[in-house]
Amino acid sequence: MTLFSSVVILGAVLLLLLLLPHDVQAFAFSPPIVCGYRLGSSHHLRSFSPRFSSRLQWTVSDFLNNLQNPNELLIEDDVAFVKQLDLNKSSGDNIITPMSWDGKRISENMYRVTLPSTLLQELRNYINHMGITDFYRGLVIDGPPYNPGEEKTVTFQEQNWMVHRPKSHWRSNMHWLSPANEAAHDDYLTVLSAGGFDQVLDSIGAYFDLDGLSAYHLSFIGVSQCERGFIHTDVNDSGVMAFNLIIPLMLVEGESPELEILSDDETTTRYYQYEYNVASMIGDDALHATASCDYMPKGEMRLCATVYVGDITTTNVRNLLMSLTQAYPPVGNAQHLLDRAGCHWSRTDATKRLPVPVK
What we know:
Layout (H helix, E strand, L loop, with lengths): L2 H17 L2 H8 L3 E7 L2 E7 L3 H14 L7 E4 L2 E4 L13 E3 L11 E5 L2 H14 L1 H9 L10 E6 L2 E6 L10 E5 L2 H13 L2 H11 L4 E12 L1 E2 L15 E9 L8 E4 L6 E4 L5 E5 L5 E3 L2 E2 L7 E9 L6 H6 L11 H6 L5 E2 L13
Antiparallel strand pairs: 1-2, 3-4, 5-6, 6-15, 7-8, 8-9, 9-10, 10-18, 10-19, 11-17, 12-15, 12-18, 13-14, 13-16
């Protein structure tokens, strides 16, 4: 396409927009977007339409930027966006890198973290030994799954865990499984230790110039079908001192990207493809969702570990508590978290490490 043709097409588009009634313009270029924010056990929704002028500016900009590669221009729910999957890869000693597309960041607190090669195998061995892998197959492949909003206490190798299926507005068969008490939590921590997760804590502490870190909330998440992801946040207003790391353990080959990311200004959507030995690290107010998927025809599922880490302080502990969804750590117990602040990494005390597995 020549430059002259491009200018003619753009001029025609702009002229048409000026002639259309405002309500038609708003429908075509500014559809309502629903965003959810998780606060404690409840989910607060709000619906809004971005200002017409800002949506028009963004759409035309994307149009111009992608005339050279029109095959990457997609339409979803009347919103044009470019699905760019060639993300920045790990390089050299850069263990932590901001997520970006074509060098541009849309979510300030979304990162990729290169993991020790030993961690994946340690976690896989653990879930297989505990019976967690087979448990998830029974839930999301062979069925039946739990009812939306249902939760139960289950036992693996004489340890208590809590399984929870999110409410129906998540529109998926995802289930969360977390330690139900400190004993199960600490056992999970020893697996992270055996896999070299102390190195990850070292990197996070240094990268964000923190004083201390604790791995305070752990889970596994499994899914085989998602009709449409529910936009939410995992951590809010921690002072960029707390993060959720999603660690892929089982992925379905040849499928589309698994993580949907909404920009900080809520105008742009991008998709991220999970990788083995790389964690997605989600920080303050980062809007995201499980991307639509259906692995049922293949009889497969996606299974990940999640590890919340944070520099817990009297200033942010209340906000950290609001993001907890499982039985442990105890919901609403600020002192419980404060007592464990900095117990797994410290800027000034090298002895602060994850608990070592008992031989």
